[in-house]
Amino acid sequence: MKIGICDDNILYLKFLDETVNKLFLNTKGIFVDALNPSELSLQIKNSSCPYDIIITDIDMGTYNGINFAKEINLINSSCIIIFVSNFINFATEVYDVQHIYFVLKSEAELRLPKALEKAFLVYDERISNFLTIRYQNVEFRISLMDITHIEALGRYLYIHDI
Question: What is the model's pTM?
Answer without folding.
Answer: 0.81
